[in-house]
Amino acid sequence: MSEKVKVVVTGAAGQIGYSLVPRLLDGVTFGNKTVILSS
């Protein structure tokens, strides 16, 4: 069974947000088998 991780990003504006969010959701940060619930 895959692990679930909830990711919440607040206050990320501009380039920081555009750079951070894809890296959190691309499977590299938490692993390819992790289910990511984003808010």
Element layout with pairings:
Blueprint: E1 4-7, H1 14-25, E2 35-38
Parallel strand pairs: 1-2
Detailed description of the structure:
With 39 residues, the protein is an alpha+beta fold. The chain has one domain. Helices cover 31% and strands 21% of the residues. It has one helix and two strands, in the order βαβ. The protein has one helix spanning 14-25; strands spanning 4-7, 35-38. The chain has a two-stranded parallel ribbon with strand order 1-2. The protein starts with a strand and ends with a strand. The model has no long low-confidence stretch (mean pLDDT 87).
Structural class: alpha+beta
How far apart the termini lie comes to 22 Å
- Poorly predicted runs of 5 or more residues: none
- Count of extended strands: 2
| Number of structural domains | 1
Q: Please estimate the helix content.
A: 25-40%
What is the helix tally? 1
Q: What is the element string, with H for helices and E for strands?
A: EHE
What labels describe this entry?
alpha+beta, two-stranded parallel sheet, 1 helix, 2 strands
Nutshell version of this structure?
With 39 residues, the chain is an alpha+beta fold. It contains 1 helix and 2 strands.
